[in-house]
Design a protein that fits this description.
The chain has 302 residues and is of the alpha/beta class. The protein contains eleven helices and 13 strands. 42% of the residues lie in helices and 25% in strands.
Length: 302
């Protein structure tokens, strides 16, 4: 049994005619009949039966056709994907992107990347993925690239994009809200709303606390900046996050972290020791080249 026989069988079943199938397949009818006869012999079951001048598919053939359609459909899909992968100017890049990178950095990168007409056919999709699951997401082929805070892993390559300033946030009703700035030690006298350990920023903050010999009282953990800001707005505690647009509409006050100059490094990452599809590699290299042109850093403003 071979793929040619399967395509012959599929076409005959569709047209219910050896004559029409031979014309469509550009093969002599005797050769087509001989190929199907060999297939029937191998299966030890009739696939078609004659009815007048035409043919009909048998019950065995109907059952076999279900699987043949699946096989040939998967083969066509695989072939299409390989052709897409070999084309450096066409394909879809699936990216895990940190929240603050979604507003300006990534859209700006995609926009400038698309300014080259050769890249117009490259599509982008944002995938929800925590930093802690990044390694597995690469392994499962769920994502192609990641952008955000870092959780170390020996199967991921990282490129440092830039450092993003961290600020304190407190409820508007909190006495600290009128200060404009606060030291880290004073802030951590209050209950802290922090990131979960799925988030790379949590590991960054834990390192900062250790460096300053501080032990925060973490009252609640949240998955992202929006959830942290909402919890602070409700009066549950204080937070340390980058500046996000939601702060303008929530009942929170941003404060400068005095004498600390805290920031979190943000990275581009991809699977180590794997060959990226050309269109993915092109975008990765484009981002790195843009960062190198700008001096290896990207300024984030608010």
């Amino acid at each position: 049994m071979n793929l040619q026989q399967l395509r012959y069988f599929q076409t005959i079943a569709e047209l219910e005619s050896y004559t029409k199938a031979s014309h469509k397949l550009l093969i002599a009818q005797p050769s087509l009949s001989h190929s199907i006869a060999d297939l029937e012999a191998e299966l030890n079951a009739p696939l078609f039966y004659k009815i007048g001048r035409g043919i009909r598919i048998t019950e065995y053939g109907e059952r076999f056709l279900i699987h043949v359609n699946k096989i040939l459909s998967e083969l066509d899909l695989a072939t299409s994907e390989i052709h897409s992968m070999r084309n450096s100017n066409s394909g879809k890049i699936r990216m895990a992107v940190g929240y603050t990178l979604q507003s300006h950095f990534i859209p700006d990168m995609i926009s400038s990347f698309h300014q080259n007409p050769e890249n117009h056919l490259v599509q982008f999709e944002f995938i929800e993925q925590h930093a802690a699951m990044m390694e597995n997401a690469f392994h499962q082929k769920i994502i192609d690239l990641g952008f955000g805070a870092r959780i170390p892993g020996d199967k991921i390559e990282f490129y440092h994009l830039y450092d993003e300033e961290l600020i304190a946030i407190v409820p508007n009703s909190h006495p600290l809200s009128r200060a404009g700035r606060v030291t880290l030690s004073r802030l951590l006298e209050e209950p802290l709303i922090s990131y979960t350990r799925n988030c790379g920023t949590r590991y960054c903050l834990d390192g900062i606390f250790e460096r300053f010999h501080l032990t925060p009282h973490i009252l609640q953990e949240a998955e992202n900046e929006k959830m942290i800001a909402a919890a602070v707005s409700s009066g549950l505690g204080v937070g340390i996050i980058p500046h996000v647009p939601e702060l303008q509409v929530l009942n929170v006050t941003p404060l400068v972290l005095e004498s600390s100059s805290l920031s979190r490094p943000l990275y581009l990452c991809w699977p180590k020791n794997e060959i990226l599809p050309p269109f993915v590699r092109n975008f990765k290299d484009y981002v790195i080249a843009r960062m190198e042109e700008s001096g290896g850093s990207h300024s984030s403003s608010f």
